[in-house]
Structure formats: C-alpha cells, structure tokens
Amino acid sequence: MSVLKVIEILSNSEKSWEDATSKGIAKASKSIKDIRSAYVQNQSVTVKDGEVEEFRVNLKVTFEVK
After folding, report:
1. What is the per-residue pLDDT across 30-45, written as a single tens digit (0 to 9) for each?
2. pTM of full prediction above 0.85
3. Can you tell me the distance from the alpha carbon of 36 to that of 4, in angstroms, rounded to the nearest whole number?
4. Where are the chain's structural domains?
5. Nearby residues of 58 by Cβ (< 8 Å), 6 or more positions away
6. pLDDT tens, position by position, 6-61
7. CATH homologous superfamily of domain 3-65?
8. What is the pLDDT of residue 55?
9. Do 14 and 56 touch, CB atoms closer than 8 A?
10. Which H helix or E strand runs over 19?
11. How many of the other CB atoms lie within 10 Å of CB of 23?
12. In principle, which of 13, 15, 28, 30 could form an S-S bond with 20, CB 3.0–4.6 Å?
C-alpha cells in the first residue's frame, strides 16, 4: 500500500503557464522525491501597461511518503 501526500506550491514565469508549471515541478523535485502528479488548481497573470507581465500557477503536487 502506498501513502501519498499533497502539497500546494506557487510558481511563475514570464513565458507561459506551461513554463510556470514546469519550473514549479523542477524546483519541487530538488527537495521532494517520488512526485507522482501535479494538478493546476488555478492560473492567473499580472498585467503592466496593458500587457501580460507574468504567468502564475497554483499547483497541487502529489508524492509518495516513504
């Protein structure tokens, strides 16, 4: 039987929501082992002078507890 834990992380990118997601998972993988999945719970952007400045994602990351 596996025991899984879910944590919430926030990540951002100047390129896209996909890039923000990839960066968040890459960073989390440095300290969390056995990540099984990630769910994008929320997406948002910041706007400056009428243009998108930054893409943001709120991720729920699931990993196995050893």
Report:
1. 999 999 999 999 999 9
2. yes
3. 9
4. 3-65
5. 8, 9, 10, 40, 41, 42, 43, 44
6. 999 999 999 999 999 999 999 999 999 999 999 999 999 999 999 999 999 999 99
7. Flavin-binding protein dodecin (3.30.1660.10)
8. 98
9. no
10. helix 17-29
11. 15
12. 13
User: Token digits for 40?
Assistant: 């994008």
Of 40, 5, 41, the closest CA to residue 22 belongs to 40
Confidence band for 66, pLDDT divided at 50, 70 and 90: confident
Rounded to 5 degrees, φ, ψ at 15 are -95, -55
Give the separation between CA 52 and CA 32, rounded to whole angstroms: 31
18 CB contacts (<8 Å, ≥6 apart)?
Answer: none
